[in-house]
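Hi,

I'm pasting everything inline rather than attaching a file, because the server keeps stripping attachments. The sequence lines come first, and each chain or strand is labelled.
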Amino acid sequence: MDLKQISSPIQHHLELFEDVFAKSIRSKVVLVDFITNYIIKQKGKRVRPILVLLSAELCGGVNTKTYRGATLVEILHTATLVHDDVVDDADTRRGLASINAVWKNKIAVLMGDYLLSKGLLLSLDNDDVEFLKITSTAVKRMSEGEIHQIQKSRKLDMDEATYLRIIGDKTASLLSTCTEIGAASATADPHIRTLLRDYGENVGLAFQIRDDLLDYVGRKSITGKPTGLDLSEKKLTLPLIHALTKGPKKEGKEILSMIKNGGKKASAKRVLEFVERNGGIEYAEEKARSFSVKAKEQIASFPDTASKEALLSFADFVVERDK
Amino acid sequence: MDLKQISSPIQHHLELFEDVFAKSIRSKVVLVDFITNYIIKQKGKRVRPILVLLSAELCGGVNTKTYRGATLVEILHTATLVHDDVVDDADTRRGLASINAVWKNKIAVLMGDYLLSKGLLLSLDNDDVEFLKITSTAVKRMSEGEIHQIQKSRKLDMDEATYLRIIGDKTASLLSTCTEIGAASATADPHIRTLLRDYGENVGLAFQIRDDLLDYVGRKSITGKPTGLDLSEKKLTLPLIHALTKGPKKEGKEILSMIKNGGKKASAKRVLEFVERNGGIEYAEEKARSFSVKAKEQIASFPDTASKEALLSFADFVVERDK
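And the predicted assembly:
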């Protein structure tokens, strides 16, 4: 199942969401409004709104509050992307020139701030304070998680527990925000909200493990991302972390010092071979699957509906994808 | 009167604020916590917290909510500075190396996001939702105001009304946030809150006009900012806007096309002479003074206290400063 099929139970809601999203970021300042229109044209896959809408549908039905929740997460996501492109000096975004490429860094940063404030005001003006709490906690976890990963990469001393904590913070936090906000928009039942939050958290863990795994087993060329292993960032991810605990200690030390001294193509081949030989690939695949299963267990007790089916498929999708 | 004297009525509160501020941005992630400590060492002039505390003191007295309000604005201000340094590629901040210079852009942007989320959570966890509304509105105005100014600068078609709207959005919005939050922390009376907000707005307008004026009449070397007129940004500010309406139209057109074709030192001299000859300096001075007077009128009816005296002095300070 692909994302298009997964979103089919809420396709109509997704179109209404686009309306709310577009209206929510408009401005009276001509240039700001012009750039927001450009941003709408850069439309992404809408994974986050889809998760919000499916979760709400599962927990009682999409309503106007759900659209605002989906809009909040998509606005924040967009603001992050605009700022990321400045940091990465990226020229394109989703096939169109990036904001910073067209209007320079200064305007891109200001646009990010503008979007952020519009997201906050959307929630504050409608008393969606719980949405803001959920989201702010996620932003805190994401930024801490990313910095934690950089800190650990510098010292190359990552164990599995730390790895899981980091990917929980930097990736799963945002997916669980989507599913929790969706649930919170449709029901006041704290137990149901927790189930959906935990579904999102586990799907997020599975997603990131799969993502890190794809660096080892390769991606189809469609992804746009470079295929194969890039050791230059010195990121230790699950396949290698596991191989280091299973493989011979002496060889493990050699591998680590090879990574420390700069990630050349030649050493990438050696690392790959080490990881494969010591079961790192299978272990990570198994781990991703187990989080996917755990995600599905959270929503198992719900009545069988199209939205439940879609969320179950999404949990499969994140571990089966090869891009 | 300088800032030290102005802050003397709330000096004790300012020290307690430092405590709340430092505690509010701490993290369990070692590197994040290390950088927040570094940020605390980069301590600024604390103009914003001083305004929050003085306003609260005037409106009934500083309380724990006031410290949180002051912390919120200072956290947001700090986050903005960290992001600004990335955009400007700045190496130093307040005499110390900038975050991006020490830890690279990626970490600087993440730290900005982290601070932002901590500011939001501080207010959300304490149900200071009104603080967030005031602040988000200011962030929206600031980003729109800055982009509006860039838009207008490109076309060089700024009149006085547009100039005042832009500096209201980009500068006065944040000062009025401080004074409104201070008032809101101490009283529920909407009339008093409006008075303090309008005090801040007018002080902010006076501050920015004076700031733009200092580009023409020069700054003392202490400022660190370059002295004299920099036309390369093509910013049209009040002294020139006024001179263009008063001076001969033909000469005005020459001046504008000179600025359009790149701001060289030689043309700066010609522009300065044009502005002086057509009363631009006096006009801007008069305008700044009139906003300062308007600010003072807002708080005239309050009983005479040390905090009132300090806020009156601050309104004088912003138009008298030469740096």
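The interface with chain A takes residues 27-32, 35, 80, 83-84, 86-87, 105-107, 109-111, 113-114, 116-118, 120-121, 124-125, 129, 132-133, 136-137, 139-140, 142-144, 146-148, 150-151 of chain B (CB under 8 Å).

If the labels don't parse on your end, tell me and I'll reformat.
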